[in-house]
Design goal:
The protein is mostly helical. The chain is about 70% helix and about 0% strand. It has a domain of about 240 residues. Helix 1 runs antiparallel to helix 7, helix 2 crosses helix 12 and helix 3 crosses helix 10.
Length: about 375
Amino acid sequence: MAAARLPSRLRLPDQPMLRHLVLCAGALVLFYVLTVNLSSYHNYQVGLIALFAMVIAGLSVLTGINGQISLGHGAFMAVGAYTFALVQEHVTLPLALELLAAVAASAVLGLVVGIPATRLRGPYLAGMTLILALGLPQLADKYNSVFGGDEGLHPSQLVAPGAVDPNRWFAWITVLVAVIVVALLANLVRSHFGRAMRAVRDNEVAAMLAGIHVGRTKVLAFVVSAGCAGLAGAFLALSGGVVTTGDFPLSLSIYLVAAMVLGGAGSLVGPWWGAIAIVYLPQWSTSISSDFGLGSAVAANLALVIFGLVLIIVMMLAPTGVQGGVRWLARRLLAARFPRPPAAAGVTAVAGFPEPPAPATPDMRTEQERTHP
Protein backbone atom coordinates (compact mmCIF):
# COMPACT_ATOMS: atom_id res chain seq x y z
CA MET A 1 0.00 0.00 0.00
CA ALA A 2 1.34 3.43 -0.91
CA ALA A 3 2.35 5.78 1.88
CA ALA A 4 -0.17 8.42 2.85
CA ARG A 5 0.35 12.01 1.82
CA LEU A 6 -1.82 14.36 3.86
CA PRO A 7 -3.15 17.57 2.35
CA SER A 8 -1.11 20.61 3.35
CA ARG A 9 -3.97 21.99 5.47
CA LEU A 10 -3.91 18.84 7.65
CA ARG A 11 -0.16 18.63 8.18
CA LEU A 12 1.45 19.66 11.45
CA PRO A 13 4.26 22.25 11.44
CA ASP A 14 7.69 20.90 10.53
CA GLN A 15 9.44 22.77 13.34
CA PRO A 16 9.50 20.35 16.34
CA MET A 17 8.78 22.87 19.10
CA LEU A 18 5.90 24.45 17.20
CA ARG A 19 4.51 21.02 16.35
CA HIS A 20 4.66 19.98 20.01
CA LEU A 21 2.91 23.19 21.09
CA VAL A 22 0.08 22.53 18.64
CA LEU A 23 -0.31 18.95 19.86
CA CYS A 24 -0.22 20.02 23.52
CA ALA A 25 -2.84 22.72 22.95
CA GLY A 26 -5.10 20.17 21.28
CA ALA A 27 -4.56 17.69 24.13
CA LEU A 28 -5.41 20.32 26.77
CA VAL A 29 -8.63 21.21 24.96
CA LEU A 30 -9.63 17.53 24.80
CA PHE A 31 -8.86 17.00 28.48
CA TYR A 32 -10.86 20.09 29.43
CA VAL A 33 -13.89 18.88 27.49
CA LEU A 34 -13.49 15.45 29.07
CA THR A 35 -13.19 16.64 32.66
CA VAL A 36 -16.16 19.01 32.57
CA ASN A 37 -18.34 16.05 31.58
CA LEU A 38 -17.05 13.62 34.22
CA SER A 39 -18.06 13.08 37.84
CA SER A 40 -15.85 14.12 40.75
CA TYR A 41 -14.45 10.61 41.26
CA HIS A 42 -13.64 10.14 37.58
CA ASN A 43 -11.91 13.53 37.55
CA TYR A 44 -9.76 12.26 40.41
CA GLN A 45 -8.86 9.24 38.28
CA VAL A 46 -7.93 11.53 35.37
CA GLY A 47 -5.53 13.31 37.73
CA LEU A 48 -3.98 9.98 38.72
CA ILE A 49 -3.57 9.04 35.06
CA ALA A 50 -1.77 12.33 34.42
CA LEU A 51 0.67 11.93 37.32
CA PHE A 52 1.50 8.35 36.37
CA ALA A 53 2.01 9.51 32.78
CA MET A 54 4.73 11.87 34.07
CA VAL A 55 6.81 9.16 35.70
CA ILE A 56 6.27 6.65 32.87
CA ALA A 57 7.32 9.28 30.32
CA GLY A 58 10.57 9.85 32.22
CA LEU A 59 11.09 6.09 32.46
CA SER A 60 10.43 5.77 28.72
CA VAL A 61 13.20 8.29 28.02
CA LEU A 62 15.60 6.42 30.33
CA THR A 63 14.85 2.92 29.03
CA GLY A 64 13.44 3.34 25.54
CA ILE A 65 15.68 6.22 24.40
CA ASN A 66 18.84 5.71 26.46
CA GLY A 67 18.66 1.92 27.01
CA GLN A 68 19.02 1.86 30.83
CA ILE A 69 16.71 -0.40 32.84
CA SER A 70 15.32 0.82 36.16
CA LEU A 71 13.19 -1.13 38.61
CA GLY A 72 13.40 1.55 41.28
CA HIS A 73 11.29 4.43 40.03
CA GLY A 74 8.81 3.88 42.84
CA ALA A 75 11.62 4.96 45.18
CA PHE A 76 12.14 8.18 43.23
CA MET A 77 8.41 8.85 43.54
CA ALA A 78 8.68 8.27 47.30
CA VAL A 79 11.52 10.80 47.59
CA GLY A 80 9.48 13.39 45.74
CA ALA A 81 6.38 12.75 47.85
CA TYR A 82 8.22 12.91 51.20
CA THR A 83 10.19 15.98 50.14
CA PHE A 84 6.97 17.74 49.16
CA ALA A 85 5.33 16.84 52.48
CA LEU A 86 8.37 17.86 54.56
CA VAL A 87 8.67 21.21 52.79
CA GLN A 88 5.00 21.91 53.45
CA GLU A 89 5.41 20.94 57.09
CA HIS A 90 8.40 23.17 57.83
CA VAL A 91 8.26 26.01 55.30
CA THR A 92 5.51 28.08 53.74
CA LEU A 93 6.16 28.32 50.01
CA PRO A 94 4.11 28.65 46.84
CA LEU A 95 2.98 25.37 45.34
CA ALA A 96 5.32 25.72 42.36
CA LEU A 97 8.39 25.98 44.61
CA GLU A 98 7.24 22.99 46.67
CA LEU A 99 6.96 20.95 43.49
CA LEU A 100 10.39 22.13 42.34
CA ALA A 101 11.85 21.04 45.68
CA ALA A 102 10.45 17.54 45.12
CA VAL A 103 11.91 17.47 41.61
CA ALA A 104 15.30 18.64 42.87
CA ALA A 105 15.49 16.03 45.65
CA SER A 106 14.62 13.19 43.28
CA ALA A 107 17.02 14.50 40.65
CA VAL A 108 19.85 14.52 43.20
CA LEU A 109 19.08 10.91 44.09
CA GLY A 110 19.02 10.14 40.37
CA LEU A 111 22.49 11.68 40.11
CA VAL A 112 23.74 9.52 42.98
CA VAL A 113 22.29 6.38 41.41
CA GLY A 114 23.26 7.35 37.87
CA ILE A 115 26.99 7.68 38.54
CA PRO A 116 27.55 4.00 39.46
CA ALA A 117 24.95 3.02 36.86
CA THR A 118 27.37 4.11 34.13
CA ARG A 119 29.42 0.97 34.88
CA LEU A 120 26.45 -1.40 35.05
CA ARG A 121 24.33 -2.86 32.29
CA GLY A 122 21.32 -5.09 31.86
CA PRO A 123 20.39 -7.21 34.90
CA TYR A 124 23.11 -5.67 37.09
CA LEU A 125 21.64 -2.20 36.67
CA ALA A 126 18.13 -3.56 37.20
CA GLY A 127 19.32 -5.28 40.39
CA MET A 128 20.85 -2.09 41.77
CA THR A 129 17.69 -0.08 41.20
CA LEU A 130 15.62 -2.95 42.63
CA ILE A 131 17.63 -2.75 45.85
CA LEU A 132 16.87 0.98 45.93
CA ALA A 133 13.13 0.29 45.67
CA LEU A 134 13.37 -2.30 48.47
CA GLY A 135 15.64 -0.41 50.85
CA LEU A 136 14.55 3.21 50.64
CA PRO A 137 11.11 2.76 52.28
CA GLN A 138 12.83 1.08 55.22
CA LEU A 139 14.62 4.35 55.99
CA ALA A 140 11.27 6.09 56.40
CA ASP A 141 10.16 3.41 58.85
CA LYS A 142 13.41 3.60 60.80
CA TYR A 143 13.40 7.39 61.19
CA ASN A 144 9.72 7.70 62.04
CA SER A 145 10.25 10.90 64.00
CA VAL A 146 11.07 12.63 60.72
CA PHE A 147 8.94 10.73 58.24
CA GLY A 148 5.92 10.01 60.41
CA GLY A 149 6.26 6.22 60.64
CA ASP A 150 3.10 4.26 59.94
CA GLU A 151 0.94 7.37 60.20
CA GLY A 152 3.01 9.15 57.58
CA LEU A 153 3.02 12.83 56.77
CA HIS A 154 -0.06 14.89 55.95
CA PRO A 155 0.50 17.57 53.30
CA SER A 156 -2.32 19.96 52.58
CA GLN A 157 -4.47 19.34 49.53
CA LEU A 158 -5.25 21.70 46.68
CA VAL A 159 -7.79 24.39 47.39
CA ALA A 160 -10.07 24.88 44.40
CA PRO A 161 -11.10 28.44 43.52
CA GLY A 162 -14.76 29.39 43.84
CA ALA A 163 -17.27 26.64 43.25
CA VAL A 164 -14.92 24.41 41.21
CA ASP A 165 -14.94 20.79 42.32
CA PRO A 166 -11.64 20.00 44.16
CA ASN A 167 -11.08 16.78 42.21
CA ARG A 168 -11.71 18.57 38.93
CA TRP A 169 -9.26 21.29 39.93
CA PHE A 170 -6.71 18.62 40.84
CA ALA A 171 -7.24 16.99 37.43
CA TRP A 172 -6.78 20.32 35.61
CA ILE A 173 -3.53 21.18 37.42
CA THR A 174 -2.08 17.68 37.08
CA VAL A 175 -2.97 17.35 33.40
CA LEU A 176 -1.51 20.78 32.64
CA VAL A 177 1.78 19.92 34.34
CA ALA A 178 1.88 16.46 32.74
CA VAL A 179 1.37 17.87 29.25
CA ILE A 180 4.11 20.44 29.85
CA VAL A 181 6.47 17.69 31.06
CA VAL A 182 5.75 15.52 28.02
CA ALA A 183 6.30 18.53 25.70
CA LEU A 184 9.64 19.30 27.33
CA LEU A 185 10.71 15.66 27.07
CA ALA A 186 9.64 15.58 23.42
CA ASN A 187 11.83 18.60 22.66
CA LEU A 188 14.67 17.02 24.65
CA VAL A 189 14.70 13.72 22.77
CA ARG A 190 14.74 15.58 19.43
CA SER A 191 17.67 17.74 20.45
CA HIS A 192 21.39 17.02 20.32
CA PHE A 193 21.12 15.38 23.75
CA GLY A 194 18.34 13.08 22.54
CA ARG A 195 20.45 11.99 19.58
CA ALA A 196 23.33 11.31 21.95
CA MET A 197 21.08 9.14 24.15
CA ARG A 198 19.97 7.06 21.17
CA ALA A 199 23.56 6.69 20.01
CA VAL A 200 24.63 5.45 23.46
CA ARG A 201 21.73 3.01 23.49
CA ASP A 202 22.59 1.58 20.08
CA ASN A 203 26.36 1.27 20.46
CA GLU A 204 28.42 2.80 23.26
CA VAL A 205 31.75 2.27 21.50
CA ALA A 206 30.54 3.94 18.31
CA ALA A 207 29.05 6.80 20.34
CA MET A 208 32.36 7.30 22.13
CA LEU A 209 34.25 7.34 18.85
CA ALA A 210 31.77 9.96 17.60
CA GLY A 211 32.77 12.26 20.47
CA ILE A 212 29.82 11.60 22.79
CA HIS A 213 30.56 11.46 26.52
CA VAL A 214 28.82 8.16 27.33
CA GLY A 215 28.97 8.42 31.12
CA ARG A 216 27.66 11.97 31.24
CA THR A 217 24.82 11.11 28.85
CA LYS A 218 23.74 8.17 31.01
CA VAL A 219 23.86 10.18 34.22
CA LEU A 220 21.87 13.07 32.75
CA ALA A 221 19.23 10.61 31.48
CA PHE A 222 18.91 9.21 35.01
CA VAL A 223 18.62 12.71 36.48
CA VAL A 224 15.87 13.72 34.04
CA SER A 225 13.94 10.50 34.59
CA ALA A 226 14.24 10.69 38.38
CA GLY A 227 13.08 14.32 38.35
CA CYS A 228 9.92 13.31 36.47
CA ALA A 229 9.28 10.56 39.03
CA GLY A 230 9.75 13.00 41.91
CA LEU A 231 7.25 15.42 40.39
CA ALA A 232 4.74 12.60 40.03
CA GLY A 233 5.34 11.59 43.65
CA ALA A 234 4.62 15.14 44.81
CA PHE A 235 1.31 15.14 42.95
CA LEU A 236 0.49 11.74 44.44
CA ALA A 237 1.04 13.22 47.91
CA LEU A 238 -1.09 16.19 46.93
CA SER A 239 -3.91 13.94 45.76
CA GLY A 240 -4.28 11.84 48.89
CA GLY A 241 -3.31 14.26 51.63
CA VAL A 242 -1.11 11.62 53.28
CA VAL A 243 2.29 10.08 52.49
CA THR A 244 3.22 6.66 53.86
CA THR A 245 5.66 3.96 52.81
CA GLY A 246 2.71 1.75 51.91
CA ASP A 247 2.04 4.04 48.92
CA PHE A 248 5.34 2.99 47.29
CA PRO A 249 5.68 -0.81 47.40
CA LEU A 250 7.97 -2.78 45.13
CA SER A 251 4.99 -3.69 42.98
CA LEU A 252 4.63 -0.01 42.04
CA SER A 253 8.06 0.00 40.38
CA ILE A 254 7.19 -3.20 38.53
CA TYR A 255 3.87 -1.73 37.43
CA LEU A 256 5.67 1.34 36.07
CA VAL A 257 8.05 -0.73 33.95
CA ALA A 258 5.22 -2.95 32.68
CA ALA A 259 3.11 0.12 31.87
CA MET A 260 6.01 1.66 29.96
CA VAL A 261 6.39 -1.50 27.85
CA LEU A 262 2.62 -1.76 27.43
CA GLY A 263 2.31 1.77 26.08
CA GLY A 264 5.47 1.58 23.98
CA ALA A 265 9.05 2.01 25.17
CA GLY A 266 10.62 5.15 23.76
CA SER A 267 7.26 6.76 23.01
CA LEU A 268 5.97 9.84 24.85
CA VAL A 269 2.32 9.20 24.01
CA GLY A 270 2.49 5.56 25.08
CA PRO A 271 2.89 6.49 28.78
CA TRP A 272 -0.72 7.72 28.78
CA TRP A 273 -1.90 4.24 27.75
CA GLY A 274 0.25 2.69 30.47
CA ALA A 275 -1.06 5.15 33.05
CA ILE A 276 -4.64 4.24 32.15
CA ALA A 277 -3.78 0.59 32.76
CA ILE A 278 -2.22 1.36 36.17
CA VAL A 279 -5.27 3.30 37.31
CA TYR A 280 -8.06 1.10 35.98
CA LEU A 281 -6.74 -2.49 36.07
CA PRO A 282 -6.66 -2.69 39.92
CA GLN A 283 -10.22 -1.34 40.00
CA TRP A 284 -11.35 -3.95 37.48
CA SER A 285 -9.59 -6.73 39.38
CA THR A 286 -11.37 -5.69 42.57
CA SER A 287 -14.71 -5.84 40.80
CA ILE A 288 -13.90 -9.28 39.36
CA SER A 289 -12.83 -10.67 42.73
CA SER A 290 -15.97 -9.39 44.43
CA ASP A 291 -18.23 -10.72 41.66
CA PHE A 292 -16.71 -14.21 41.83
CA GLY A 293 -16.24 -14.27 45.60
CA LEU A 294 -12.49 -14.82 45.47
CA GLY A 295 -10.43 -14.90 48.64
CA SER A 296 -8.42 -11.97 49.88
CA ALA A 297 -5.10 -13.61 48.98
CA VAL A 298 -6.23 -14.16 45.38
CA ALA A 299 -7.77 -10.70 45.12
CA ALA A 300 -4.53 -9.07 46.30
CA ASN A 301 -2.54 -10.54 43.40
CA LEU A 302 -5.26 -10.56 40.77
CA ALA A 303 -4.39 -7.07 39.51
CA LEU A 304 -0.79 -8.13 38.81
CA VAL A 305 -2.00 -11.26 37.00
CA ILE A 306 -4.43 -9.27 34.84
CA PHE A 307 -1.71 -6.73 34.10
CA GLY A 308 0.59 -9.53 32.98
CA LEU A 309 -2.06 -11.07 30.74
CA VAL A 310 -2.85 -7.72 29.15
CA LEU A 311 0.86 -7.12 28.59
CA ILE A 312 1.30 -10.51 26.92
CA ILE A 313 -1.70 -10.00 24.63
CA VAL A 314 -0.58 -6.51 23.63
CA MET A 315 2.97 -7.69 22.92
CA MET A 316 1.63 -10.46 20.70
CA LEU A 317 -0.66 -8.13 18.74
CA ALA A 318 1.50 -4.99 18.81
CA PRO A 319 5.18 -5.69 19.62
CA THR A 320 5.91 -1.95 19.82
CA GLY A 321 3.19 -1.35 22.39
CA VAL A 322 -0.27 0.14 22.23
CA GLN A 323 0.98 3.40 20.75
CA GLY A 324 2.94 1.52 18.10
CA GLY A 325 -0.22 -0.36 17.14
CA VAL A 326 -2.24 2.86 17.03
CA ARG A 327 0.41 4.49 14.86
CA TRP A 328 0.42 1.54 12.45
CA LEU A 329 -3.37 1.56 12.21
CA ALA A 330 -3.42 5.33 11.64
CA ARG A 331 -0.92 5.01 8.80
CA ARG A 332 -3.04 2.33 7.16
CA LEU A 333 -6.20 4.41 7.44
CA LEU A 334 -4.50 7.56 6.17
CA ALA A 335 -2.95 5.66 3.27
CA ALA A 336 -6.41 4.45 2.27
CA ARG A 337 -7.96 7.90 2.68
CA PHE A 338 -5.12 10.02 1.23
CA PRO A 339 -3.09 7.78 -1.10
CA ARG A 340 0.15 9.15 -2.43
CA PRO A 341 -0.20 10.14 -6.12
CA PRO A 342 1.65 7.88 -8.58
CA ALA A 343 5.05 9.04 -9.71
CA ALA A 344 5.27 10.90 -13.02
CA ALA A 345 6.44 9.02 -16.09
CA GLY A 346 10.19 8.71 -16.24
CA VAL A 347 10.65 9.60 -12.55
CA THR A 348 11.13 7.05 -9.81
CA ALA A 349 8.80 7.26 -6.79
CA VAL A 350 11.59 6.81 -4.27
CA ALA A 351 14.52 9.01 -5.15
CA GLY A 352 13.03 11.41 -7.69
CA PHE A 353 15.74 10.76 -10.28
CA PRO A 354 15.01 9.95 -13.96
CA GLU A 355 14.70 6.27 -14.59
CA PRO A 356 17.56 4.76 -16.63
CA PRO A 357 16.72 4.06 -20.27
CA ALA A 358 15.42 0.59 -21.02
CA PRO A 359 18.03 -1.71 -22.49
CA ALA A 360 17.82 -1.96 -26.29
CA THR A 361 16.42 -5.19 -27.68
CA PRO A 362 19.08 -6.84 -29.85
CA ASP A 363 18.20 -6.95 -33.56
CA MET A 364 18.53 -10.57 -34.66
CA ARG A 365 17.76 -9.93 -38.36
CA THR A 366 20.34 -10.44 -41.04
CA GLU A 367 21.74 -7.60 -43.13
CA GLN A 368 19.60 -8.63 -46.09
CA GLU A 369 16.42 -8.67 -43.95
CA ARG A 370 17.18 -5.20 -42.60
CA THR A 371 17.86 -3.85 -46.10
CA HIS A 372 14.87 -5.58 -47.74
CA PRO A 373 12.20 -6.06 -45.09
